[in-house]
């Protein structure tokens, strides 16, 4: 089962990357991003790409420019997540065969991202948009648009967001914080997966 959960590993260090990756994979979370404002993020991503093979979709978050996209393509990343909907970043991501998930908050941003070729939309910060805001905005989006709630959304909120039509979630501090051990991450990830599966069923 491929769950629409993107684990956001802000602050992870390269020497932690492989055991943390293993913890997520064992729990059943296979989409993982390392924000580029983490220590040596490209090194962490490359280590995880080499270890995971085809078992995971790995990439970067907080991607702000085309140069970073090109570097990610060079190390085998498969996913680019951004806080904004920069059409140059989206187009470069798609040109390199990677999946693009730009951050949006308004209909204008959402449609601009889709026109540029985005694979899905990251609604951020989701807790500020809220369920009512998302429902109103999603009503005008093309049918089948993938959407992810990111920011201030946790396991207790999954059911309500699924009911509102969200595709999945990006989870940061409630699933990983710098310094967490692989065992801690495995325990948190298992709880998240259980809550996700229950809310989805």
From TrEMBL:
Pathway: Carbohydrate acid metabolism. Keywords: Carbohydrate metabolism, Lyase. Gene3D superfamilies: Aldolase class I. PANTHER family: 2-DEHYDRO-3-DEOXY-6-PHOSPHOGALACTONATE ALDOLASE-RELATED, 2-KETO-3-DEOXY-6-PHOSPHOGLUCONATE ALDOLASE. SUPFAM superfamilies: Aldolase. InterPro entries: Aldlse_KDPG_KHG (IPR000887), Aldolase_TIM (IPR013785), KDPG/KHG_AS_2 (IPR031338). The keyword Repeat does not apply. Homotrimer. GO terms for molecular function: 2-dehydro-3-deoxy-6-phosphogalactonate aldolase activity. This is 2-dehydro-3-deoxy-6-phosphogalactonate aldolase.
